Amino acid sequence: MSGQVVSCDPVELGSLFLFEKLDPQQLARLCREGRVERFEPGPVYAEGDPATCFYVLLEGTVVLSRRVGNEDVEISRTGSRGVYAGAFQAYLGDQVPQVYNNSLQVTGPARFFVLPAESFAAVMLDWFPMAVHLLEGLFFGSRRNQEAIGQRERLLALGSLSAGLTHELNNPAAAAVRATSALRERVAGCGANCARSPGGPTSARPWRP
Fold this sequence. Notes:
This protein is α+β, with helices and mostly antiparallel strands and 209 residues long. The protein has helices at 10-14, 24-33, 117-127, 129-170, 172-196, and strands at residues 4-6, 35-39, 42-45, 53-59, 62-68, 71-78, 84-86, 103-106, 110-116.
């Protein structure tokens, strides 16, 4: 999805918290390589689509959502200028799948500064190389930690299941006793119910030839 392209003002970009530390030359480069787009109410991009652009809100209200099963679950709604979404992992290149990991829509007329993913990756590497290295380490370190924790949790769950099965297999006599006891209780309960019923054994007449 794309909106109507309007003029880009470096001064407006510099008023955003995201770009307030950039110098005039850097702001001019952003306007030169990016653009400002106006969107009407509706979707801006969809989860799973190729992540082609980095979006910074200039005006309006945005809603971020994630797909959970067959439903779209809202995870954020804001009208704060300078909030961003889209291809913010473009600086990782082909180390990760470059797709949108959420869906973005606007509730009313809105304006965004839109920077192509390739340009966003380039300015990050040119202007903030140390930050990029730190972010890469944080991203991949967190992912490895999550994978290790997930694997450990699966192993613990499997161990608990195996222990339960082993206990049952190693104690067939106990299992038989439990089954016999449960059957005895059911039979006793059935006998009591039958005794209380009008057509039960206590009211039946003996058969005589």
